[in-house]
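INTERNAL AUDIT FORM
Audit reference: QA-55
Scope: verify that the stored structure record matches its stored sequence.
Auditor: D.O.
Record contents follow.
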Amino acid sequence: MAVIALASASGSPGVSTTALGLAMEWPRPVLVVEADPTGGSSILAGYLRGHMQPGPDLVDLMMSPLGPAESLPRIAVPIPGTTISYVAGTRTHVQAAALRDRWASLSEVLADLEATGQDVIVDAGRLGLIGSPEPLMCTADLTVLVVRTYLPALVAARSWAENVTQPGVGWRWPGLLLVGEGMPYTSREISRLLGLPVVAEIADDPVGAAVFHRGAPQPRHFTTGAYARSLRAATEELQAEVGRSRAAVTSEAAR
C-alpha cells in the first residue's frame, strides 16, 4: 500500500499515540518506525509498559555494516497478538543527530516493503528538531501534519504548513490529520487557514488514547467507542488519499 509519515508542529497532539492507533486498525501487516528525534521508544515504554527488554533500535538499523535492507528483518520487533512490528527509536536525542545523512537510504528500503505486502507508518515526531527525518517525510506516499483544532496549535502549524508545500523542498503529498475536529474550529476552517487538505480526523479522547499512549486497560466498549471508530475511519481515509496521490502522479507523468 504505502509509506505514511506523521509529524507535528507543537502542542503535543499525540503523533506517537496516533501512529500506533492507526497501525492497530491497519488492514495489512504494518511496520511502525519510531523516527522521533527526541529519542526513546513510545511503544516499548508506553503501550508495552516496559515489559519487553530493549533490543536493537534505529541506530543499529542505520549503522549496520550489512545495510538497512538486510538488517531490518532482524531489528524490527513484532508486537505480540498483532500484525505490527516496530523499529524502536534512538535511545537519546544525541543519537538522532548522528543519523542525519542516513535517512535517504532508509527511505528507499521502506518504499520497497510494499512488494512484500507490508506497509509503513513513520512516527516523525516534532518538526524542526536536530535529527528530524526529513527525507522520510519528503519521500513518503503521504505525510500528514497532526494538529489539534484550538488556536495556539493552529498558529504553531501555520508556518510549517507553508514550508511543506514548497516545490522541490516540501513533502511529496502533504495533508492534515485533525485531533478533535470542531474543538472549536472545523476542518473546513482549518484547511482554509493552513492551505492543506484535511485527510483524516480522530476523536479527542484521552481515555481511549491512553490505551496506546501508556498501555492503560481498554475501557468498556472500547472497540465500538468513538476513539476506535475514528481510528478505523482514519485508516480508510489515509489509504484513499494515497490512492488519489498515486493516481495524480500517474496522470501527471502521462502528460
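Auditor finding: record pair retrieved intact. The longest strand covers residues 119-126.
Action required: none
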